[in-house]
Amino acid sequence: MLILKLSCPDRPGIVAKISSYIASHGGNLLEFNQFTNSLDAKFFARIEMDIDQIDVSMESFIKGFEVLGESLDATWHFRPAPFKVKTAILVTKTTHCLNEILWRAAHGDLPLEITSIIGNREDCKAIAEKEGIPFHYIEMDGDQKAGGFKQIAQILIDEEVELGILARFMQILPDWFCNQFAGKLINIHHSFLPAFIGANPYRQAYDRGVKLIGATCHYVTSDLDAGPIIDQEVKRVLHSHSPQDLMRLGRDCERIALARGIRYHAFDRTIIDGNRAIVFED
């Protein structure tokens, strides 16, 4: 199977041209998701195709698409399936998001090859050792922060990481780091953005008497907690809930939103469009 992800200026006949190219080589469409943003006249698509019976090699098929892609002024990406995405997980102290990722990856829900777990604290080291995953402890306190991010960047490069997951990694990333790995970093924010930013959003939510709390999975950009949103999850709050209850509900939201966001990204179901993420759910 082959996955094609594409975006281009909208115009008549795009779907027909793509479908015709696939059919002309003996490919078979398995799934064709598309979206047209009429406000910006942009077209987005994600296509799954069976290429077992195509009349050329997969490499020639992908190379041959260039003529059509360029004629559409498109940006596109092919990925053979099945596959696993090389992934590093960044953590600090809390473990619920890390455990959720590891469990789903082990059960095949997330197509991840976890190359390492990176922590600025050692609280998650035992989990990594239990799973047989390398753990990198990076000192980041005080004036060690700048050097720590350089070490993390080198680890991501050395391990050829395609996706970095901030699983409650409680550090603000420098602009250069965000830009170097743009589109490859996913964060779970412990709040239903845009609201209640900071270290203790559930206490803020309690003080404000909110009726819904949630969590937001988003791509990381140099704008703090303002990257394109991939997924969000909410829970209803009762007047009887304490701050501890909100934290419990919030952890559930974080695990669910992060897992879905990772899945959508890993299966090439997201396309970043400026400040927005187009998501073709499965």
Task: Note down, in words, how this protein is organized.
The chain is α/β, with parallel strands linked by helices and 282 residues long. The protein has two domains: 2-80, Alpha-Beta Plaits; 85-279, Formyl transferase, N-terminal domain (Rossmann fold, 3-Layer(aba) Sandwich). The protein has eight helices and 13 strands. The longest helix is centred in the C-terminal third of the chain and has 24 residues, at 243-266. Pathway: Purine metabolism; IMP biosynthesis via de novo pathway; formate from 10-formyl-5,6,7,8-tetrahydrofolate: step 1/1.
- The sequence of SSEs as H and E is EHEEHEEHEHEHEHEHEEHEE
Count the E strands. 13
CATH class of the largest domain: Alpha Beta
- Count of domains: 2
Uncertain ranges: none
User: If you consult CATH, what is the topology of the largest domain?
Assistant: Rossmann fold
Measured as a percent range, the helix fraction is 25-40%
**Strand order across the largest sheet:** 7-6-5-8-9-10-11
**Head-to-tail CA distance between termini:** 16 Å
The Cα radius of gyration reads 21 Å
Shape: globular
Mean pLDDT: 94
Known CATH architecture of the largest domain:
3-Layer(aba) Sandwich
| Proportion of beta-strand residues | 25-35%
InterPro entries: ACT-like_dom_sf (IPR045865), ACT_dom (IPR002912), Formyl_transf_N (IPR002376), Formyl_transf_N_sf (IPR036477), PurU (IPR004810), PurU_ACT (IPR044074)
Pfam family, one: Formyl_trans_N
Protein name: Formyltetrahydrofolate deformylase
Enzyme class: hydrolase
